[in-house]
Every structure is written in structure tokens, then in C-alpha cells.
């Protein structure tokens, strides 16, 4: 039955006269759907999780009952309500949004976060506001301040905004314990969570409340959104545009399509998946002098605010942005959203497109612009699932031990000293830690005690402050990992432009090199290691590197990848019956929001697969193919399952052959670079013979050799106080750190985090079981198939021009000339010399025995020289010796050219031989190929042993 006007007004009748008067003054005639359904239980003091699209008044839904409760209170002493947001920028927006209500209702609202001045903090401590808007990290600090603890003892309401963002992170796990510490101080309080969409509402409700009663009010996001997925069709205009942009015609068509969609609307957000893409796309629009800005987290705060304000004022029509703009930062009204490339997840698409159409009952409209078949089919599947409300569940960090360590120290800070049993009970009231064993807790406490972060009185079973408690706690308010960044400083304007990741600076940045940031080209003048600063000047230049931030790639869920497999399977059946691609594409249009051209192009590899007589990979049919050292396992299981299967295959094949196996994974295929005399049959053998029950143990053994575990271990060790910050988190000492911490909770947590973040052990084990029971068919192909070669590696996101420009090539040449190599004679095995590449003769020769069998090794490869000289060798030394002989053979055949190739980062003898073998007319192309291999290595180095 349809609601009557009076029944729609019922929600506001639960609020007091003064609040209803404020509603009339503010123009709230009738409640929105979430307000109608959520205000009654909230006004009654119930805990609730409110899920509704952006722009439907969720903030007022939560805060009107809270304001009403505060306004009606006879006595107000301390802080009555906390409003917690995951971003400082959201704090600023919330303060502005809530100020009017506060003034009308005589309720004081204030903000506190890391940038709040000391003067303002003092005022808040002496005269606390009624409502404090803050972040999870600042809550940690306020819980330990003497005056603020007193103020917080009066808290009766806590609102957590964008709760989905916190539910899947360690920041959120930390917050849940923080809320239990607050409950110890203030007693029970009302908890309200706000989010646009989550796939597991009941689970997130338990996360929010500590598994206490929680009403879930959900307004389906998919009912108020419209999507269109399109792959741009190249036009005559794109030919001219490509010349102007110094790029290829396909990228020109993407730029033109986005430009045209922006021009057809008043204000458009253009979401991309990486900061690299944001910068590259922004630079194209800047070159065309289009009114489109760039916004992402590595720009300085001033630069972000500047472009946000310009967008609000209408000075720019579009904003190229990353996830920094997902969470509702106020940039005024948005009437359209473009997603460039597949959004990878249903929740992400709904969150982003939900930013558009901020009017009551307005439909949020979004266009997804795709670039290759995987991308398109994936986007179509995600768009369909979004409309159907098939959202991924939150991936809560259960039992993260570094959070236990952090919050145990927090409990000691709260009380000065606390009983171990009392601390354990507080921790386990928080939902992510409800299953934490007492033994695991005590192991963490002993680790903290050994690191002198607290004092454990074994006899009294009490935890007390030690000399390192205070310093550790305030240095670790956040669970966000500390990663070194370099400030980018514009010498001409004398201001900070943004930041660069340390790995980019070490691998690529040097005086004279160029890169893009804030949509502009910069040339590096100097890299100041001491100050962690890159000094730059602006240039006008079409080529250059894009800043290589290492933020984790958004993983595509198994369900989405599986649907792509189903779409291919359906198309395969029709192609086998003789249908043409146009007719097959039309069959998809009633179910998926694309146009005929877009779907037709996406199905091209499937049609060619059928024409080649190759099987189409699905969740029930795996196809293993290969030629030479390249083997592809086609498996539409999503990133995490494929990552797990890939690591398993690379570890077991590597163990069998005694050689490293390279790996690159996307949601639909696992690409392996295997040793000689190895091929598809070895991958099939792993799938058919590996015990599913042993997957976890095998992977943990394999992880010990991986850079991923060592990097994670360093981050976790810092959170345990086991790694002093001044030691940094570089590669030095990683093996020793691993050996020292292997039997500690630090190591256990690092392994747990890698498994949680990157892998899907149970699902991968289920695949092996399916293969071994015959439920999943495994077939092989002797050659690479159209689908097998269609991965993301062949359709990379918009990064750099096709050719590096002359200055980048020249800088690479100069860097390699000045790099050092070890030259080692493999004939007499006595002569070695460490020298710069530029001093190496055209044909190196041993001065002792005149042999030309000279290996060119990395400057840190002294152990390889030792291995070559050893009379009896173990397996590891045999592998080193084999690599040295391959290097010497290459130098003997190609002289200094081979030395140059092998001096590059990530270019061993195998890749060097491949680079040298290519026929070229231009020597610069030789260096361009080296540069491309270095980029490939930078993208995939975490997958190599």
C-alpha cells in the first residue's frame, strides 16, 4: 500500500518541537526514505546501521535524533556525541553541515583532528563542545587526555560515517576496540553507522556495535541509479586529436569521449582507479585546455582544496579523481559520474555513481568508459549486479594482532595500569576480536614487554606503563602503515605540489627526468635524500614518467570474474551455432547496460577463440596454454583466488626445477614465466596432485622468500615496536628481521595480513578439489589463445606515451653508463672487477687469461662470484652459477651491449637476450625496450622470489 502524506510525516513526529521548527525553517517538508524508516528507532535510542545512497540525507537521519536528545537534556557537562569520519576533509564538511542545526538548537559543534591547533585543543579540553566531529585516530588520542577523558565520560551517542570504509581495514578494527574503551569510561551509548552500501549489513552492524542489538535500515542503492557502459569507437576526429596529444588513436578516443560527456553536463566527476591514471588523463585535458581538474591523495592539501573550490564555483566542469572523492567530500552538486575503466567492484561503482544527482528522488547517472574486452565484460557484469543489489560483503580484519598490541598499550595509557584479564575482556568485546584466544593475547603482551612498551607484572598479572609506553602510543595513533614519501617542491613558485612514493624516487627519479603531477609536466632538478624532497621546475613536454604510486590494485571479486566467464560461455555456444557477432551482441543488451558496438567489441576474442578451435575458459573449465617459457592458466576466479593459485604454481614449479618462476595475475588468467623444459603440463600437474588441505602450509613456506611478506613484516614490526622508526623499512636487513621474528606474534600477524589481503586459501583449495574430482575440467592448448593473450598486461591503463621522449631516453642512458657492474672471468674464475658501465670495453676480456667468457653481474652479487669459485655447490649456488654462465655467454656474443642491458633494473640474462635479439633501426629503441622492461619489473617485482 502506498504511503499517505501523513504517514510519511510520522518520522518527524518522533522529534521535539524545537527540532521540528528547525526542519520547517530549513525546508524539510517531508522525510526522505531513510529518514522515514530510521528516525523512529534512532529517536528511541536504538543502535542502528543506516544504508542509503549518497544524497538521501543520511547525516540528518542520524543527527536529528541526536540533536533532539541533546537539546532536551536538562544538564550538559561534557561531550554528548561523537561524529567519527574516516577523512579529515569530511570532518571539515560535516562541521559546516552541522553548524546551522547546532546554532538553531543551541548545541555546540566542533571539530578535532591532527591539524587542530594546540590553542583550539586547549579550549576544547577546558570547555568541551556538545558534539565533537573527529577521526578514528584522534579518538585514540582523546581517550588518554586527562581533561578530555572526563568530557568523554558523558558521551551518549556515537555516529560512525562511511562505516563500510572502516569495516574492511585495520583502522576499523582499531576503532572497534576504541569504542569499547570508551564504553568502559562512559557506560553504554547509542551507536549509529552510516554507509552508502555494503553487501553484508548484519555483519557490519555487529562490527559497529560489538555484536549487540542493531537495527538495519537499508534503502537499496540499485533502485536509484542508471549506468551506461561504452567502449569508444574511433572516429576521424581522433586521428587529429592523437597528433595533438602525442598519443595513439585509441587513447585519443577515450579522451574525446570523456570530454564530450563532461561538455554535455554541468558538473562531472571522472573516477579512475589509480593516481597514475589520474595524472596521465589530467595532463591530456590540460594539453587540450579543457576546464577539467585533478584530485587525489598525493596532492598537497592546498592543491586539493583549491581544485575542490574551483569545481564548486563552476570554474572547472569536471574533476579527474580517485577514491579520495568517493566518500562524500563536499564539492557542490554533481550531475554525472564517469568511471574510466572497470570499477572492479559493485560497491565501488555504487559509491562513486551515487555522488551524482544530489536532489530528492533524483536518479544518479553514470557512464563507464572501457578500453579492452576484459574491461568491458567486467564493467557490464558489475553494472548489472549493482542494479540488482548484489554487493560484495565487507572483509573485516578478524583477530589482527598488531591492533591487539596497539590497543593493549592504549588501555595501559587509559588507566596507568590495568589487569591483564580486564584488558583481555575489553578487547574481546570488540567484534573483530571476539575469538581472540587468551594464549594469543598473552603472547602479544610478552612481545610488548620485551620491546619495553609496557611492563608486565607476572605475579600480579597486571600491565603497567614503562619508559617506552608514551612515545610508542602517540607515534602509533594510526594503523595506516608508515611508508616513506618525498615532497615534490616547485622551485619556481616556491610551494609544495604533492608527494611521490619512495619506490618511484629510488627506481626512476633523478636530475633531468620528467614526470606528471597535478596534470602538469615537471623536470627534476635535485633529489634531496636528507630532506626527502624532490625539487622540480615546470616544463612543456609531451613525454615522461607518471608517478608510480604503489597503492594496492583493487581486486576483482570471484563472483564478478565468474560472471564474465559465464558471458563468454553463453557467447561461445552461439558462435558455435554460426551466429555472427552483431547478433550475439544484441542478445546481451536486454540484460546488460551497454550498446551494440561496445558488446560486439568485447566479444571479439571469444569469436576468435571459437574460430581457432580452442576451448573457452569458465569457472568449470580451465585452459592452460603456453609457448616457450610463457604459460597462461585461464581461470575466471578473480584476483585473490588467482593470486593464490599462481603463488602455489610458481612455488611448486620453482621447487621442482630449482629456478625462480615469474608471475603476473589478473582476474581471468595467471601468467607464469617458467624455466626451460617446463610447460603447461607442469601447471596441470600442480592442479591435479596438490592436496587441497595443504594449500595454506605450502603458501606460508613459499611466502618466506617473497618481498610481500618481508615488506608486511616490517610494517607489522613497527606497530609492535619491534622495528625502530629510524631504521626505515627498506630492503636492508629484511632476511634477518624475518629470521628474528619467525616464532613471534609479529610474524603470525604478517602472515595473517598477507593471507587476508591478497589470498583466498579456502576458495583456491575448492578449485583444486573440483579439478581432482572432475567437477572442473582442465584442458591444454599448445599455442596462446585469443582470450589467453587478452590480459590487462596487453591492455594497460592510460599511463605514458607510446615512446618515451628524448630526455627520458637520454637520462636512462646516462644512469646506466654510471651504474656499476661486477665483471667476472668464468674461465680462470680468479679475476673480478667492479666498474662503471661506461668504462667497460666493447668486448670485455680477462687481463689474466685473455678469455672473453666474462659475466656481467649486479654490484651486490658477490655471493655469485663466491658460488662460481666454490668446488662443491649446494642447489642455491648451482642456480647462481647457471645465471653467471648465461650472462657470460651473452657478453661473449654481444659485448658491451649485453652489459648495458643487464645493468638495467630487473633485466636478467633471459630478458637481456630477448631485448638484444630485436632488430631495430634506431639505437634509442634499444633503450626504450630496456625502459619498458624496467617498468614491467617495477610493476611485478613483488611476485618474484
Features:
39 helices, DEAD/DEAH box helicase, disordered C terminus, alpha/beta, Rossmann fold, 945 residues, six-stranded parallel sheet, globular, isomerase, catalytic activity, acting on DNA, Arc Repressor Mutant, subunit A, DEAD/DEAH_box_helicase_dom, disordered N terminus
Give an account of the 3D structure.
With 945 residues, the chain is of the alpha/beta class. It has 6 domains: 5-220, Rossmann fold, CATH 3.40.50; 224-387, Rossmann fold (3-Layer(aba) Sandwich), CATH 3.40.50.300; 401-467, Orthogonal Bundle (Arc Repressor Mutant, subunit A); 485-556, no CATH class; 613-785, no CATH class; 806-943, no CATH class. It contains 39 helices and 29 strands. A 7-stranded parallel sheet has the order 3-4-2-5-6-1-7, sandwiched between helices. Strands 8-13-12-9-11-10 form a 6-stranded parallel sheet, with helices on both faces. Strand 19 and strand 20 (520-528) form a beta hairpin. The termini are far apart. Mean pLDDT is 86; it is low at 1-8, 547-551, 725-732, 792-805 and 940-945.
Would you kindly provide a brief summary of this structure?
Helices cover 47% and strands 15% of the residues.
Q: Taking all residues together, what is the mean pLDDT?
A: 86
The CATH architecture term of the largest domain is: 3-Layer(aba) Sandwich
- Counting helices, strands and paired strands, the structural category is alpha/beta
Strand runs, count:
29
Distance between the termini: 63 Å
Q: Residue share in helices?
A: 40-55%
- The total domain count is 6
CATH class of the largest domain: Alpha Beta
For the sheet with most strands, the description reads: 7 strands, parallel
CATH superfamily membership of the largest domain, which one? P-loop containing nucleotide triphosphate hydrolases
Poorly predicted spans? 1-8, 547-551, 725-732, 792-805, 940-945
> Which strand order spans the largest sheet, edge to edge or round the barrel?
3-4-2-5-6-1-7
Rg from Cα:
30 Å
* Total of helices: 39
Family: Belongs to the Lhr helicase family. Lhr-Core subfamily.
GO molecular function, one term: DNA binding
Keywords: ATP-binding, DNA damage, DNA repair, DNA-binding, Helicase, Hydrolase, Isomerase, Nucleotide-binding
Organism: Haloplanus rallus
Amino acid at each position: 500500500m502506498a504511503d499517505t502524506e501523513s504517514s510519511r510525516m510520522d518520522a518527524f513526529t518522533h522529534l521535539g518541537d524545537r527540532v521540528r521548527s528547525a526542519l520547517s525553517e530549513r525546508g524539510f517538508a517531508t522525510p526522505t526514505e531513510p529518514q522515514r524508516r530510521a528516525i523512529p528507532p534512532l529517536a528511541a535510542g536504538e543502535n542502528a546501521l543506516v544504508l542509503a545512497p549518497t544524497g538521501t540525507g543520511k547525516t540528518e537521519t542520524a543527527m536529528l535524533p541526536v540533536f533532539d536528545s541533546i537539546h532536551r537534556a536538562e544538564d550538559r557537562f561534557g561531550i554528548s556525541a561523537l561524529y567519527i569520519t574516516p577523512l579529515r576533509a569530511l570532518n571539515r564538511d560535516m562541521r559546516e553541515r552541522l553548524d546551522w542545526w547546532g546554532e538553531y538548537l543551541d548545541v555546540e559543534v566542533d571539530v578535532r583532528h591532527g591539524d587542530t591547533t594546540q590553542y583550539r585543543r586547549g579550549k576544547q579540553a577546558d570547555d568541551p563542545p556538545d558534539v565533537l566531529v573527529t577521526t578514528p585516530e584522534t579518538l585514540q588520542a582523546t581517550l588518554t587526555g586527562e581533561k578530555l577523558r572526563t568530557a568523554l565520560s558523558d558521551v551518549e551517542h556515537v555516529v560512525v560515517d562511511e562505516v563500510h570504509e572502516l569495516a574492511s581495514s585495520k583502522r576499523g578494527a582499531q576503532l572497534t576496540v576504541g569504542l569499547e574503551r570508551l564504553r568502559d569510561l562512559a557506560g553504554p551509548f547509542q551507536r549509529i553507522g552510516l554507509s552508502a552500501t555494503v553487501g553484508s549489513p548484519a555483519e557490519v552492524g555487529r562490527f559497529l556495535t560489538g555484536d549487540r542489538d542493531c537495527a538495519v535500515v537499508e534503502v537499496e542503492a540499485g533502485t536509484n541509479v542508471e549506468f551506461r557502459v561504452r567502449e569508444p569507437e574511433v572516429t576521424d576526429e581522433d586521428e587529429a586529436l592523437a597528433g595533438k596529444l602525442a598519443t595513439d588513436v585509441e587513447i585519443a578516443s577515450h579522451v574525446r569521449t570523456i570530454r564530450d560527456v563532461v561538455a554535455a553536463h554541468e558538473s562531472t566527476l571522472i573516477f579512475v582507479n589509480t593516481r597514475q591514471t589520474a595524472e596521465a588523463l589530467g595532463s591530456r585535458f590540460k594539453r587540450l585546455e579543457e576546464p577539467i581538474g585533478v584530485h587525489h591523495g598525493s596532492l598537497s592539501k592546498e592543491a586539493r582544496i583549491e581544485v575542490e573550490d574551483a569545481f564548486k564555483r563552476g570554474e572547472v566542469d569536471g574533476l579527474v579523481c580517485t577514491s579520495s572523492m568517493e566518500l562524500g567530500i563536499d564539492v557542490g552538486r554533481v550531475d554525472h559520474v564517469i568511471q574510466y575503466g572497470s570499477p572492479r567492484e559493485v560497491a565501488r561503482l555504487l559509491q562513486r555513481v551515487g555522488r551524482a544527482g544530489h536532489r530528492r528522488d533524483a536518479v544518479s547517472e553514470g557512464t563507464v568508459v572501457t578500453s579492452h574486452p576484459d574491461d568491458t565484460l567486467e564493467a557490464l557484469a558489475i553494472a548489472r549486479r549493482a542494479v540488482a543489489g548484489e554487493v560484495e560483503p565487507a572483509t573485516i580484519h578478524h583477530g589482527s594482532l598488531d591492533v591487539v598490541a596497539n590497543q593493549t598499550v592504549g588501555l595501559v595509557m587509559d588507566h596507568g595500569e590495568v589487569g591483564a584479564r580486564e584488558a583481555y575482556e575489553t578487547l574481546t568485546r570488540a567484534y573483530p576480536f571476539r575469538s581472540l584466544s587468551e594464549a594469543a593475547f598473552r603472547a602479544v603482551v610478552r612481545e610488548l614487554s620485551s620491546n619495553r612498551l609496557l611492563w608486565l607484572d607476572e605475579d600480579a598479572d597486571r600491565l603497567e606503563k614503562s619508559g617506552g609506553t608514551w612515545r610508542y602510543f602517540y607515534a602509533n595513533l594510526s594503523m595506516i602503515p608508515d611508508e616513506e614519501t618525498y615532497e615534490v617542491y616547485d622551485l619556481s613558485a616556491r610551494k609544495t605540489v604533492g608527494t611521490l612514493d619512495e619506490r618511484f624516487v629510488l627506481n626512476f627519479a633523478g636530475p633531468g627526468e620528467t614526470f606528471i603531477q597535478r596534470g602538469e609536466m615537471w623536470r627534476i632538478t635535485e633529489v634531496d635524500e636528507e630532506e626527502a624532497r624532490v625539487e622540480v621546475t615546470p616544463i612543456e613536454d609531451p613525454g615522461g614518467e607518471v608517478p608510480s604510486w604503489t597503492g594496492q590494485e583493487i581486486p576483482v571479486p570471484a563472483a564478478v570474474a565468474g560472471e564474465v566467464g559465464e558471458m563468454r560461455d553463453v557467447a561461445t555456444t552461439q558462435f558455435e551455432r554460426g551466429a555472427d557477432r552483431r547478433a550475439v551482441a544484441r542478445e546481451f543488451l536486454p540484460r546488460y547496460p551497454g550498446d551494440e558496438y561496445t558488446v560486439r567489441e568485447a566479444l571479439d576474442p571469444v569469436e576468435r577463440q571459437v574460430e581457432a578451435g580452442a576451448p573457452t575458459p569458465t569457472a568449470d573449465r580451465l585452459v592452460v596454454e603456453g609457448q616457450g617459457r610463457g604459460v597462461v592458466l585461464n581461470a575466471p576466479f578473480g584476483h585473490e583466488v588467482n593470486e593464490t593459485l599462481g603463488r602455489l604454481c610458481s612455488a611448486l614449479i620453482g621447487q621442482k626445477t630449482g629456478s625462480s618462476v615469474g608471475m603476473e595475475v589478473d582476474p581471468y588468467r595467471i601468467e607464469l614465466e617458467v624455466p626451460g623444459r617446463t610447460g603447461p603440463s607442469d601447471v596441470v600437474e600442480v592442479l591435479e596432485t596438490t592436496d587441497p588441505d595443504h594449500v595454506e602450509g605450502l603458501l606460508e613456506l613459499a611466502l618466506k622468500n617473497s618481498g610481500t611478506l618481508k615488506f608486511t613484516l616490517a610494517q607489522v614490526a613497527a606497530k609492535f615496536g619491534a622495528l625502530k622508526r629510524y631504521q626505515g623499512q627498506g630492503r636492508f636487513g629484511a632476511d634477518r628481521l624475518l629470521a628474528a621474528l619467525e616464532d613471534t606474534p609479529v610474524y603470525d600477524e604478517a602472515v595473517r595480513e598477507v593471507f587476508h589481503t591478497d589470498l583466498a586459501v579456502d576458495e583456491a583449495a575448492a578449485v583444486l578439489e573440483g579439478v581432482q574430482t572432475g567437477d572442473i575440467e582442465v584442458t591444454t592448448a599448445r599455442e596462446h589463445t585469443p582470450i589467453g593473450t587478452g590480459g590487462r598486461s596487453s591492455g594497460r591503463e592510460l599511463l605514458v606515451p607510446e615512446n618515451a621522449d628524448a630526455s627520458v631516453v637520454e637520462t636512462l642512458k646516462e644512469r646506466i653508463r654510471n651504474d656499476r657492474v661486477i665483471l667476472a672471468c668464468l674461465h680462470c674464475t680468479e679475476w673480478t672487477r667492479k666498474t662503471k658501465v661506461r668504462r667497460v670495453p666493447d668486448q670485455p676480456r680477462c687481463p689474466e687469461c685473455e678469455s672473453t667468457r666474462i659475466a656481467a653481474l649486479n654490484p651486490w652479487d658477490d655471493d655469485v662470484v663466491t658460488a662460481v669459485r666454490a668446488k662443491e655447490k649446494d642447489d642455491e649456488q648451482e642456480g647462481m652459477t647457471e645465471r653467471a654462465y648465461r650472462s657470460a655467454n651473452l657478453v661473449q656474443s654481444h659485448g658491451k651491449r649485453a652489459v648495458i642491458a643487464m645493468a638495467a633494473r630487473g633485466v636478467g640474462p633471459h630478458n637481456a637476450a630477448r631485448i638484444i635479439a630485436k632488430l631495430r633501426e634506431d639505437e634509442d629503441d634499444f633503450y626504450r625496450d630496456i625502459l619498458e622492461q624496467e617498468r614491467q619489473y617495477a610493476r611485478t617485482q613483488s611476485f618474484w622470489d
